Amino acid sequence: MPAGQFRGILLMLTSGVSNQVGAATAALGFPALGPAGVVAIRQAVAAAVMLAVVRPPLRSFTRRQWIPVLALAAIYATMNLTLYIAVDRIGLGLAVTLEFLGPLAVALATSRRRVDLACALVAGAAVFVLMRPQPSTDYLGIGFGLIAACCWAAYILLNRTLAARLPSAQGAAAAAAVSAVAYLPVACWILVQHTPAPKYLAYAAAAGLLASAVPYLLDLLTLRLVPTTFFGLFMSVNPLLAALAGWLLLDQRLGLLEWAAITAVISANATSALTPTRRQPTV
User: Fold this and answer.
1) What is the Cα–Cα distance from 63 to 100, expressed in whole angstroms?
2) Taking Cα atoms as reference points, which of 84, 115, 112 lies closest to residue 211?
3) Distances 217 to 23, 50, 53, 173, 214 between C-alpha atoms, Å
4) Considering Cα of 29, then 145, then 131, then 240, what sign does the dihedral take?
5) Minimum mean pLDDT among 117-126, 144-153, 258-267: which range?
6) Could you tell me if 137 and 130 are in contact, meaning their C-beta atoms sit under 8 angstroms apart?
7) Whole-angstrom Cα distance, residue 176 to residue 186?
8) Of 256, 281, 278, the residue nearest 112 (C-alpha)
9) Interacting residues of 257 by C-beta distance below 8 A, sequence separation 6+
10) What is the DSSP string of the chain?
11) pLDDT surpasses 60 at 278
12) Which of 4, 123, 151, 171 could form a disulfide with 79 if both were Cys (CB 3.0 to 4.6 A apart)?
């Protein structure tokens, strides 16, 4: 294995672990701050780090550039909030598995291969398992997880437009800043009305670093070392890492069927990514 690819794998693994440990740490802040309060503080920390690193020239942005930036900020705000509400209700592993259906759906929707149709059916069956009716089923939590999945799909599609209008990561940094400003009233209200203990604020701040800033910076470095396809394939381990983080850090235990559903979603993505595309015959 080339040294560059090995470093890329280490970076991707570190990014995934950081992201899911950050999400688990965020959940520790829910009792005092609630999902909205944790998101507010997380967004502020993430925006501060990204603005310091990227330094986007906000004053020089044109109207054509600000439109996708504002749209991305709305997606950031909605995706993080709905994911954290889902985590609070159904657990980290299941919430991230549902959220991961977003990028998987984008990948499958742009393909006409039979193998991708099979992968879509497998992923759909996995979701059915997660949503199967039983006394403990939290349909509202599942719904928020699916909303987060839709937001992630929109995030992928919008980033294509943003990358064409702004260089490097300026758009993402600007969107993080706008999202943080939008959540500022929430953060102020929580701090004034509830006065949470410092440890809960530390949990939310750590989530901003571990689940936003660190993965973002590591992913930028990784994409210089490994192909985009391989990067997308490796992302499929995130539901597994989330389930492990929820188990080890939050004592959220899953049943055999839930583990099978998570494995099915990961396998569907891996199969789709690894299956080579047939070249069309030339005339």
Assistant:
1) 32
2) 84
3) 17, 9, 9, 11, 5
4) negative
5) 117-126
6) no
7) 16
8) 278
9) 129, 132
10) --HHHHHHHHHHHHHHHHHHHHHHHHHHTHHHHHHHHHHHHHHHHHHHHHHHHH---GGG--HHHHHHHHHHHHHHHHHHHHHHHHHHHH-HHHHHHHHTHHHHHHHHHT---HHHHHHHHHHHHHHHHHT---TT--HHHHHHHHHHHHHHHHHHHHHHHHHHHSSTTHHHHHHHHHHHHHHHHHHHHHHHHT---HHHHHHHHHHHIIIIIHHHHHHHHHTTTS-HHHHHHHGGGHHHHHHHHHHHHH-----HHHHHHHHHHHHHHHHHHHSPPPPPPP-
11) no
12) 151
Distance CA 211, CA 241 (A): 13
What tokens were used for 96?
Answer: 């991230």
Note whether 211 and 22 are within 8 A (CB): yes
In the predicted model, what is the mean pLDDT of residues 167-185? Answer: 88
- The C-alpha R_g of the chain, in whole angstroms, comes to 19
Cα(70)–Cα(77) distance, rounded to whole angstroms? 11
Token readout for 39 is: 């998101």
- Joined together, the tokens standing for residue 255 give 């049943």
Amino acid occupying residue 229: T
Q: How far is CA 186 from the centre of its chain?
A: 22
| 19/13 Cα distance (integer angstroms) | 10
Residue with tokens 């970076």: 11
| CA atoms lying within 13 Å on the CB side of residue 128 | 6
Provide the whole-model pTM.
0.84
